[in-house]
Design a protein that fits this description.
The complex is a heterodimer of chains A (about 160) and B (about 525). Chain A is mainly α. Chain A folds into two domains: about 5-65; about 80-145, no CATH class. Chain A is about 65% helix and about 0% strand. Chain A has helices at about 10-25, 40-65, 80-100, 100-115, 120-145. The termini of chain A are far apart. Chain B has 23 helices and two strands. Chain B has one domain (about 1-510). The chains are: A mainly alpha (about 160), B mainly alpha (about 525).
Amino acid sequence: MEGLLKKKDFYAGLAMVLLGAGVTLNSTTYNLGTLMHMGPGMFPFILGILLTFVGILIFISGLMTPLEGDERILPESMEWRGWACILAGPLMFILFGEFFGMIAATFMCVFVSALGDRTATLRGSALLAACITVGGAFLFSYVLKVPFPLFRWGF
Amino acid sequence: MLATALSDLWYGFGVALEPQNLMWCFVGVLVGNMVGVLPGMGPLATISILLPLTFGIKPVGAILMLSGVFYGAQYGGAICSILLNLPCHPPHAVTCLDGFPLTKQGRGGAALGVTVISSFVGASWGITEMIFLAPLLVRVALEFGPSEICSLMLLGLLAGSTLARGSPLKGVAMTLVGLLLGIVGTDIETGTPRFTFGIQSLYDGVELVGLALGLFGIAEFMKSVNQFSDINTRYSNVKIRDLRPSRDELRRSIPAMFRGTLIGSLCSLIPGTGPTIASFISYAAEKKVSKTPEKFGTGMIEGVACPEAATHSSVQGDFIPTMSLGIPGDAVMALILGALMIQGIVPGPRLISEHPDIFWGLVASFWIGNIILVVLNVPLIGFWVKLLMIPYKYLYPSALFFVAIGVYSTNNDMFQVGETVAVGLLGYLLLLLDFHPAPILLGFVLGPRFEENFRRALLISRGDILVFVRHPISAFFLLLCAILILAQIYVRLRKPKALATADAPSAGIGQLIPGHNEAE
């Protein structure tokens, strides 16, 4: 029993139970209908119950297996910088794309995400971003004609 | 039957050799080969990035290209395994075991040469199988009503989620999550928006491209960042003339090749057991039949030829259930099926008769593509080896840009880029909890059709849930489902020890390479 809080299956089961229960509850706000004439709520209702059940099974299997010595939920090295940069890159793309257009969006997306590597330098990242921006603008704007203005001032 | 098959195939070559289709096929295998070589890039992410770009071209060209990426990546993946000892693509993970020792002995070139030959042999067999088996399956499947389709899908989903690696329970959970994601959006029958939380962009449902790129792009990059710092490229100096295997090596690898092909084609017939499982089984089998099993792992050419042939015959065989029944066996096939659906083509047993150009064109393009790949891989081996040296730190930021613009261009909607980031973060959390995201895609693609047929079957039977057991074919599929579940329980309860050792090679590879996603 002890060490339960260190087990992956504990959290995995918990997450699935919560998700399943949430879906089941939420689906009752739609019309369930009858088996013959199923409403929009019936299928998610069934899936939600199944997911809750599977979650409980994962939980039980977590209880039954002994804790392995080297079991860890978080990876060995915490790459906070890498993770943050990878998530921030596309977000920069949204932000700069909305307001300044494709060139700025591309540059910022690549630049910010490139900084996620531990050995990255500001100069190297900017250089990479510049190359990708030129290539990307040519490919997507000129060749593929994606409707996304290269520049805009969208406030 | 042979005559019709040959004339259909002849027609298919006509389609595939049209200049435009030929070009798309070439682009597909070229890109596939490239991403296959690059450590940390997989065919799944690549196909999803290319998917939005195919909206503008005709369905045939689009499918030829996307499929080309898939089998092209298998050729590239082997190079990465043999020369760098990096099993970037799970199907080629076992190839490392004997491929890299061969490289160290200076026979890496010969191993690559044998790989190209066995790949071609395996693929050719897989394609032949598809030519004859797919029309047969279709003939049976055309008789299916909604209840049979439902039970068959259930079997496909169960097999896809429990036979893949990792805990079967977690696989089932992921399939359910995928089915639930498929529900998001407007209900087709009543028009009720479901699980949209009032967000306008979700009324059309979750975007396939966004979901796939979140799970296999962003989540994957988060897992691999800073993990590829010291790649050993010391041995990767291979020239064309090194590719020729010695007579002895060739003599030993030919029978292994055929055994691998056989195992691969058998594996491809069981839904859910894709190329990865085929290559593992074939390596184990080859070791069993060998007179010198103890030498495996020290550079046995058979240990390269057999799994490679198995992978390729299974890769081509994977297309059989996807194209003939509309039931994908793994995440890549789910994506290809999704691409068909985006093009407005209804997958299922009618596909071959309604769109013969797609089916036979695809079959013919497999052969053309494989020949192109052999031609690309032999003289250009030096180029591919150079490609291995591109550091990951330049690769993933560029890929992220392609992810962002790819998702944006599906609907010209920035919201979906945000959706992809959210999916990516959740996907990474799931990876940390040992969930494998591949079944999500399977459930997501099959979900809407599953629900539709489920509702229809019960409407026809006037709400009688037993209809699934009363129809004999449907009952047979359900019986198979039950056997599948019971067998899993039996195996787990009976000998957890043996299973643990059976899982060991894959677990070992998981540690060996942080960046690989079991999904491919």
